[in-house]
Design a protein that fits this description.
heterodimer, A: mainly beta, 7-stranded mixed beta sheet, 0% helix, globular, B: 0% helix
Chain lengths: 115, 113
């Protein structure tokens, strides 16, 4: 599978627990973007990362949310002490570069449900 | 003020007709423009990208860009029931650390057999 991979596809957490979402970009892609889609809402940018660097986290809530893209392994979006309002679909996208004629391709998403 | 605006629809067209989807954006610094298709419960799928004024055709799809009017459109010719989905317009302001897409809320298209 050469596409963007995300796991788990579905995640259920109780309020106060931690959620860890993983994303492996397409082969040859070194730029990763996380987006969140709330029910009946549009896709909203959260964070943009390259290997070992956070490039832009302007869309990330200041508390409880963090992201990383280590030298080895997938990118991880971490949500601590989840609340019901965190229930959403979280999508990861990747591109080989940013800007210019470079396009972002999305993974299948992780549907997070907070009970 | 919303940055990317689309009619939410639903837009209903008969099979075989042309579906016309429109999008306006507020940031004049936007340089790259994209249309994604999203089926219910699925992830966005890239359909078209357009970077310069004018038309760009790919199969049954034509994207049109008018930067002066800050307007992007997508035409779907010979619409099929399988085209029924939500179509997302996205814009990107390139340069520096900016690489993220800004999405509209999408237009829901329904193609009736």
């Amino acid at each position: 599978n050469a596409g963007v991979m995300q796991n788990p596809r579905h995640l259920v957490r109780r309020r106060g627990q931690e959620a860890r979402l993983r994303c492996s970009p397409m082969k040859g892609h070194s730029h990763v973007y996380w987006y969140r889609q709330l029910p009946e809402e549009g896709l909203k940018f959260m964070v943009y990362l390259q290997k070992e660097n956070i490039i832009d986290e302007s869309g990330m809530p200041k508390e409880r949310f963090s992201a990383e893209f280590p030298k080895e392994g997938p990118s991880i979006l971490r949500i601590q002490q989840v609340v019901r309002g965190d229930s959403a679909a979280y999508f990861c996208a990747s591109s080989p570069r940013t800007g210019g004629a470079y396009e972002q391709y999305f993974g299948p998403g992780t549907r997070l449900t907070v009970t | 003020q919303k940055e990317v605006e689309q009619n939410s629809g639903p837009l209903s067209v008969p099979e075989g007709a042309i579906a016309s989807l429109n999008c306006t954006y507020s940031d004049r610094g936007s340089q790259s423009f994209f249309w994604y298709r999203q089926y219910s419960g699925k992830s966005p799928e890239l359909i078209m990208s357009i970077y310069s004024n004018g038309d760009k055709e790919d199969g049954r799809f034509t994207a049109q860009l008018n930067k002066a009017s800050q307007y992007v459109s997508l035409l779907i010719r010979d619409s099929q029931p399988s085209d029924s989905a939500t179509y997302l317009c996205a814009v990107r302001r390139d340069g520096g650390s900016q690489g993220n897409l800004i999405f509209g809320k999408g237009t829901k298209l329904s193609v009736k057999p």
